């Protein structure tokens, strides 16, 4: 049988027995990425999603290897609500992680809530925040995050990029707004694919049997209509899937043993 050669940045699928084991290994992965980035350039840039992801970062709490003062945190997407609103991704990350660690408040880049009534101004302001962090220090056309953490919905959406939406074709803007999200709340801002795909490491985190069918559609026979399947890092960036065995139950795609 002929050997199938995958490209050097083909997705790496790592599956764990349960969510707790996933949490431990994800924490170790992030600490290693942090060390590599700080050693190289003195800072660690990371973008987080909402949903169930903040709870999966609990392995970082109390970890002495985490250099919180070196972290610069952005949100991959955000709901256009106040920061204390139950739908806010920032609120979820504060509750489950940042309120329990010593990260400086100024290192967490949230939306400007004075602009909630103007989606275009809001997304432009967040893009300018990215420019301030990256354009002065990096020369790339798009920001190059050390890590972008993503989740995946049962419909295959990721960030606030939904099936069939015009933003799937956006090639220029760093941050765009959504005023017709199929999931409430309808108004959101989101990173676009050029930003996501230029990250050094993109990590999807998916747990639970409800993700099994969609994960198979993303990895085994990728459906271009699924936003999660359109995440394709620009070489030498690397895409990882950290999943539990329940989410990977229907997937034939080869697993890779976890190692740092």
TrEMBL record:
Cleavable signal peptide: none
Annotated ranges, domain Glucosamine/galactosamine-6-phosphate isomerase: 17-241
Transmembrane domains' residue ranges: none
Superkingdom in the source lineage: Eukaryota
A biological-process GO annotation: pentose-phosphate shunt
Catalytic activity: 6-phospho-D-glucono-1,5-lactone + H2O = 6-phospho-D-gluconate + H(+)
Keywords: Hydrolase
Enzyme class: hydrolase
Gene3D superfamilies the record matches: 3.40.50.1360
InterPro entries named among the record's database cross-references: 6-phosphogluconolactonase_DevB, 6PGL, Glc/Gal-6P_isomerase, NagB/RpiA_transferase-like
Molecular function GO labels: 6-phosphogluconolactonase activity
Pathway involvement of the protein, from the record: Carbohydrate degradation; pentose phosphate pathway; D-ribulose 5-phosphate from D-glucose 6-phosphate (oxidative stage): step 2/3
Pfam families linked: Glucosamine_iso
EC number: 3.1.1.31
NCBIfam families hit by this protein: pgl
Similarity remark: Belongs to the glucosamine/galactosamine-6-phosphate isomerase family. 6-phosphogluconolactonase subfamily.
Function according to Swiss-Prot or TrEMBL: Hydrolysis of 6-phosphogluconolactone to 6-phosphogluconate.
Protein name listed in UniProt: 6-phosphogluconolactonase
């Amino acid at each position: 049988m002929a050997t199938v050669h995958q490209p050097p940045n083909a997705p790496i699928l790592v599956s764990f027995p349960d969510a707790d084991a996933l949490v431990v290994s994800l924490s170790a992965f992030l600490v290693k990425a942090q060390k590599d980035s700080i050693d190289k350039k003195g800072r660690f840039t990371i973008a987080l999603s909402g949903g169930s992801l903040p709870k999966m970062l609990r392995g970082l709490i109390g970890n002495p290897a985490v250099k919180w003062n070196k972290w610069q945190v952005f949100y991959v997407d955000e709901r256009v609500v106040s920061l204390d609103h139950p739908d806010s991704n920032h609120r979820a990350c504060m509750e489950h992680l940042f309120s329990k660690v010593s990260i400086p408040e100024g290192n967490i880049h949230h939306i400007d809530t004075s602009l909630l009534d103007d989606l275009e101004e809001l997304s432009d302001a967040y893009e300018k925040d990215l420019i301030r962090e990256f354009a002065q220090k990096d020369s790339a056309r798009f920001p190059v995050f050390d890590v972008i953490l993503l989740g995946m919905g049962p419909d295959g959406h990721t960030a606030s990029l939904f099936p069939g939406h015009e933003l799937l074709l956006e090639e220029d803007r760093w941050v765009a707004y959504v005023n017709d999200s199929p999931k409430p709340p309808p108004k959101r801002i989101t990173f676009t694919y050029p930003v996501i795909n230029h990250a050094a490491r993109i990590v999807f985190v998916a747990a639970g049997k409800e993700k099994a069918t969609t994960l198979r559609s993303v990895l085994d026979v990728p459906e271009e209509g699924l936003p999660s399947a359109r995440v394709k890092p620009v070489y030498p960036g690397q895409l990882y899937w950290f999943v539990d065995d329940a989410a990977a139950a229907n997937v034939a795609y080869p697993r890779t043993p976890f190692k740092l």
